[in-house]
Amino acid sequence: MTSRSSHTERTAAQPRQSSLHPATLSSIRLINPRIRLLKLVLPYAINFLPGQWLDVHIPTLPKAGGFTITSTPGQASSTHKDQPTHQPYLELAIQKSPANPPAAWLWRPEYEILGSELKVRVGGNFVWPPPNIDVGRVKRLVLIAGGVGINPLISVLTHLRETHSLPETVRFLYATKMDYGQKPEEVLFWPRLVRCFPGDGLSTERMELFVTGEGAAWLRPGARSRDLGVRCRRMEREDLMDALGPVESRHGAVAYVCGPAGMTDEIVGVLKEAEGMSGYRVLCEKWW
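User: That's the sequence. What structure does it adopt?
Assistant: Structure tokens below.
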């Protein structure tokens, strides 16, 4: 049996920065039984683009792990609009994966790993701004996430809001499963998404959450929070067409897709074949 290739091998053809940076694991927050949110404090500011990932080198492991940055470039800078004395940091959302040695290490008991110094390197080409596209011509941004595929897209969305550079229209479609009894705030980045979308009812920015699993029934009564529409079903082709907007204006649309393999391939195929769309304006991230 052929062993699964490492993160470094799978991403060998993608761009990487040359520098390794020290980063201290300063906090761990449990989002739900399967996902932890980690904060890595940096001794100095670093640069990256929203959507990129990190090579994470753990001293006791021979191979680096690969994890997408969920924070914004501004949070890794030496200054931040909300904090005059800002300490640069990176944020990672780590899914519990016992078969993945770096992820398993980052899921060890907090007392064993808090304060550990790691080495990180930035890489990846699934980024905002979209390569080879004039951002000034992007009038509609469609972000489509499945499960932890939300990681690069939450960085893109929050960066654009922080920098007041959102396109005219934004559609964020997020598909996830909920366990029986799971609370909405235990859905990865739900609270952050609520803060990102306005509640005036007239906004051109809209979020839709597609929930499956035993926990979906908990959301049925009055399941709408501001402009976050909750659908207790799978995402369908009609949802994608609606997100792309009218055919005659799709020349200004760019779509980003990140999720499980089957979902990503299916959605990318639908979007590329949609009337008025061009393949180069549909970007996707594949980590498998």
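The helical segments are 7-10, 101-106, 110-113, 150-162, 190-196, 237-244, 261-273.
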